Amino acid sequence: MRFDTDSFRKRARENFERAWHEGPEVLTPSGREGRYPRLSYSRAQTHPIYEMVNRLRETYLLIGFDETCNPIIVEEKDVYRQFGPEASAVLDRVFYLGGLDRPNQGIGRPELDGISRITGKDVSPDEEARLREILQKYKKSAIDGDDLIHATSEALCIDDGMTVEIYDRVFQAFRDLEPQSSRNTLRSHMTSGWFLTLSSIWDKSPLPLRLFSVDRCFRREQEEGPTRLMCYHSASCVVAGDEISVDEGKAVSQALLSAFGFTDFRFTPDEKRSKYYMPDTQTEVYARHPVHDWVEVATFGLYSPSALAEYEIGIPVMNLGLGVERLAMLTYKSDDIRRLT
Amino acid sequence: MRFDTDSFRKRARENFERAWHEGPEVLTPSGREGRYPRLSYSRAQTHPIYEMVNRLRETYLLIGFDETCNPIIVEEKDVYRQFGPEASAVLDRVFYLGGLDRPNQGIGRPELDGISRITGKDVSPDEEARLREILQKYKKSAIDGDDLIHATSEALCIDDGMTVEIYDRVFQAFRDLEPQSSRNTLRSHMTSGWFLTLSSIWDKSPLPLRLFSVDRCFRREQEEGPTRLMCYHSASCVVAGDEISVDEGKAVSQALLSAFGFTDFRFTPDEKRSKYYMPDTQTEVYARHPVHDWVEVATFGLYSPSALAEYEIGIPVMNLGLGVERLAMLTYKSDDIRRLT
Amino acid sequence: MRFDTDSFRKRARENFERAWHEGPEVLTPSGREGRYPRLSYSRAQTHPIYEMVNRLRETYLLIGFDETCNPIIVEEKDVYRQFGPEASAVLDRVFYLGGLDRPNQGIGRPELDGISRITGKDVSPDEEARLREILQKYKKSAIDGDDLIHATSEALCIDDGMTVEIYDRVFQAFRDLEPQSSRNTLRSHMTSGWFLTLSSIWDKSPLPLRLFSVDRCFRREQEEGPTRLMCYHSASCVVAGDEISVDEGKAVSQALLSAFGFTDFRFTPDEKRSKYYMPDTQTEVYARHPVHDWVEVATFGLYSPSALAEYEIGIPVMNLGLGVERLAMLTYKSDDIRRLT
Amino acid sequence: MRFDTDSFRKRARENFERAWHEGPEVLTPSGREGRYPRLSYSRAQTHPIYEMVNRLRETYLLIGFDETCNPIIVEEKDVYRQFGPEASAVLDRVFYLGGLDRPNQGIGRPELDGISRITGKDVSPDEEARLREILQKYKKSAIDGDDLIHATSEALCIDDGMTVEIYDRVFQAFRDLEPQSSRNTLRSHMTSGWFLTLSSIWDKSPLPLRLFSVDRCFRREQEEGPTRLMCYHSASCVVAGDEISVDEGKAVSQALLSAFGFTDFRFTPDEKRSKYYMPDTQTEVYARHPVHDWVEVATFGLYSPSALAEYEIGIPVMNLGLGVERLAMLTYKSDDIRRLT
Lengths: 341, 341, 341, 341
What we know:
Oligomer: homotetramer
Number of strands of chain A: 10
Mean pLDDT of chain A: 91
Shape of chain A: flat
Structural class of chain A: alpha+beta
CATH superfamily of the largest domain in chain A: Bira Bifunctional Protein, Domain 2
CATH architecture of the largest domain in chain A: 2-Layer Sandwich
Helix content of chain A: 40-55%
Low-confidence stretches of chain A: none
Distance between the termini of chain A: 46 Å
């Protein structure tokens, strides 16, 4: 509670020791809510995956890489250009993007009757004409999906509730829409984005380029498991320049991973010999961790000039990538990635 | 260059002034590379969008919200549960996810002949049996796409180059694969994720819950423009608890946006009356910025109990969302979002 | 308030529109405290000076400088070694550190009588011996100041209150203590610390060394004013190596200051020609700011080999320093530094 | 090296496999400098103490405390007001600040002769008058120490080198300057600063106040040791409000320390019963750490109204403090603090 400082000062000067002992009388007895551990200060919780995304981003910046935003949507034909004869194996695990076609809803007798049954009045010729126009405009994307109901209500001079019912019960074509797939895919590796990005900047920038991106990739898994997710984060980088060698991958691995407590590094040729890497450059990075000992944590390689040539990128490029969720599992000692996300 | 400190100390003690004037003699004349502005220290560049993602994340944490990872892939039927009669308008702008079916490649005379032409030898009955088994296993996903080529090469005792050619020229079914769409979608609003997340935790957590997520959403636009992207970031939050009112949205808006230089706030009812919000709670947030004056920057509302009930979430929930790219455009004074990404 | 999700789901399925309109009935009317702007989320406030300290630290790290902790207490003779004939001008504005000598309190008749008057009993020969011992131990620092009262109380078998009174009224030597100054000073520039730090590491480290420190310095001002404080922060760095030239200062200035919104840079010889810098290398950094236009923000130079030689540092060293408070004033548009602190 | 993408694309289309194998021919063989581990990316090193300062700052902000800048220089009489009868024990370990008085240098025959010997010419009456004026102005602080040499050179029409010699050899009063101590001290606890800060704001601010500061304090140790430094950092906070109880200290301890890996907390009465805390509120915080098990890490208490009254602070105040260097030793598993600094 508040107290009178003048009086307390006087008491202390008269007899310091006694006044000191009387100090607690200024306290208000606290109720249950005011007692620890009920009384507590909370610190907002970060999420382990985003925390790891953030730490990887900061580490890349601290070792001198510039942050980049790579395309997420990649055309199927780019996968062919990048992966050559392996493309079909890659596309096997890729998501294709599709959507609903806008339906071609005709207005005939059955529809007009259906409308009348709901609105309780006939559809006038004017209203019918306006309705047809709206449906055509919608088909041609001149009307937004968001505005369709409202525009229809206005055309028929009814309220939105009735319109919703009409679309729901009368307009058959709106009910049986099937999504159609396009030939666009979601990137499954950051590599798909790097080719597109490098292609547009490599000959306009001072070399060597050192770029990174920590962002989402997508894999069409049959099912998710303790170590595999359909939506994951890749922490990927490229170094592009005239004199680049595979040693860049080793140097980056060490600089990046030593920020996460790894102390020793071993580099072994990857048995997978992806065609977008030069032969004998695809390398697995093993690192020693105080808790986990030696674990595999990253992969790097030099892009094959066959793939680079498809994008008119005329310099060697080292690429390194690691899975953020995997690093998070190691750091937070989790054995099921699904529990982290 | 290095210099002899003993000798220099002696000279300074003999005649300080003269020794001081002789100081520059220890300098190595620098070549062109050693001269400013050639000589420079670079600071790794952050990307404006990720920078904004990061600042929004930190601000949410500083005002006491916990970080959450919401599902990105949402079943079509969840969109119906969340958006009710508006679902079809929403689905109109949503990406559906598809993929390639694994082909049913038969092995008959033409295929065996085709293989022989490439390998220069007949296919033995054993090899044929092994090949059939591989193709069936692949169809049933018992073999990974990554392993198909290698397994085939082993079965036929040939090298991978020949196998690639066989798949490319002989196995018709592998060449004409058409992606098929599923009924899974990519979230177009963070709201789709919040219903799923809240549903699984609301009755197991101390209330009120204050959660946020800053992450990607996807909109199937006809085309991208200066203010619209197919892949964008939403900075979204929910407050869920017994006593939640629409004023939560105002309080969060102010706390969040004042960290980005906005000084005054105005709240106006949104003309769009989404059915996943309670009537009269959907609100547009206008904020005053020293450079841009009044701009619209966020939207909030209380989720409709009709939608919450579908997920058995039995408490009021305030939801606020803002587009990260839009905030980045304001902050970095850009008038074309595509140039920022 | 909580609501029954089963019942709400049923209502929504019977009549979505009506159920939607009934949504608000689940809200608890909020009292005055629950209404914006009373209802608010607070974001903890950072302090502009520490915020600037932190941003400078992060920027130094991002341009590749290692963080260092330099000595704060510097012997007077080091100032002479560093500043040569200018030392006396520097020392004129430096704080010297002093302290209280531990008093030589004798115990004679008057003291014994004084003690008796307070305790109401005679001091026994044993007690007197113990008291003498305590006072001698204290004088020799074998007893801590914190423990003196308690030890005395035990020796005299009295309570602490009485002991305090005895020291206060009887032990004359304890009352008239005068602080005595030593020949140690508080660093007035970070430079004083750099010489000491570099001296111990320059020949054991890979070159060039790039080090920074953002920390406190102290100036004995006659009085503080709108632009001068006795305790301020210096954001200082050194680059030490065989080929260092004055262009390092320009390169660092630009990299560091461009992170704070400065866009152009001009370097002009400083009229002050400090003797710890080589002749003609002391340079003032002017930078252009969107709000303030051209302002002076930093100073750099190459340390004179005369000074370096005193510390056996046998390579050229560039030093740059800027005042954190000044940069904060520019950034936060303040015209009185005292209001920022 | 650069390569011709047209030609490479053509080769890949003719024979993918062969072109792929030829990929490595675009590489420039790297010299020794280009090979790992010579080739390396460095990440600027942070310093453990400043890293800990920064993490404590961020944690305080995340639990809702506002950052404050407290006075570093504290008058001796404030120590008496705060510590009452314990003041002398506190002052025993405090640094007093002193400085050099500006000397009273007379100009008589010996000085004029001394000057002549150095300049090789007589001092004219005009010059003598100007010199006297300068010395008087300097004494009265109307001339800055930095400007003394230059002003003297102008007055005597000689160069700075000669002037420096004159001050050095002729002006006796400038050579025998003794630093004099003032009655100002450097804060030894952050508490000294909190009283001053709270005093000026407590009745102008909404309560409860939650403030923190992580900054330097100074202790006059006989000598530094593995766990004691003369210049250390305190991470201190106060909570001031009508209903504050000692449980605030427990709640803050837990929130703050759990961010540093401590998992359990125990609170035991401190044997030291400082008079600036209320009786029976001074508490030691023990926390359990995965590596160190139970360790003492912080102290808190409620300020005594006797001390608060001296500053007219009329509400209870909880204060908690911890030593940053100690926490850094635990976190970085160091057993000698001097090696960390």
